């Protein structure tokens, strides 16, 4: 049992008896762990907002942009393979693929041997758009280098990859970027 004298109730200090040691937060995290957790969430939110803002002029979602980037560097993939490579949780890959096909950025082709399988590839319009998006996203690299050295970026990347461990996100990342 620990006594917390810092709790204020009705303008008075009242001792609170708790099982949580003073070095841990109410959810059992250390202050440093909680700070890291909240910082990661804030960075993710900030990054997603900035990415969404950058993609708005192209009328694309984060997932659609992610799919175009995947197809940009590969010949042809089916929906399951694309889904295994995406790093965005928002939206449905099949719905996003339909929209990209309708806009002429992606071609859809049924497999010659198994009609249940559909293959997708990027069109020349999709490649052109992918290049425009890449140019519009240079702010990411600029912001990183404004804040961190190359060594700092490498160290942060390695630390974050350690946090991912063997998660499904780590597997997806390794499939996208086999050598970082």
Tell me what you see in this structure.
The chain has 180 residues and is an alpha+beta fold. It has three domains: 1-56; 58-133, Orthogonal Bundle (Arc Repressor Mutant, subunit A), CATH 1.10.10.10; 148-180, no CATH class. Helix content is 56%, strand content 12%. It is built from eight helices and seven strands. The strands form three sheets. A three-stranded antiparallel beta sheet has the order 5-7-6. Strand 2 and strand 3 (12-13) form a beta hairpin. Helix 2 (62-72) packs across helix 5.
Short description:
It comes from Arthrobacter psychrochitiniphilus. GO terms for molecular function: DNA binding; DNA-binding transcription factor activity. The chain has 180 residues and is of the alpha+beta class.
Number of domains: 3
What is the C-alpha radius of gyration, as a whole number of Å? 23 Å
CATH architecture of the largest domain: Orthogonal Bundle
Using the coordinates above, name the CATH class of the largest domain: Mainly Alpha
Task: Label the structural class.
Answer: alpha+beta
Low-confidence stretches: 1-17
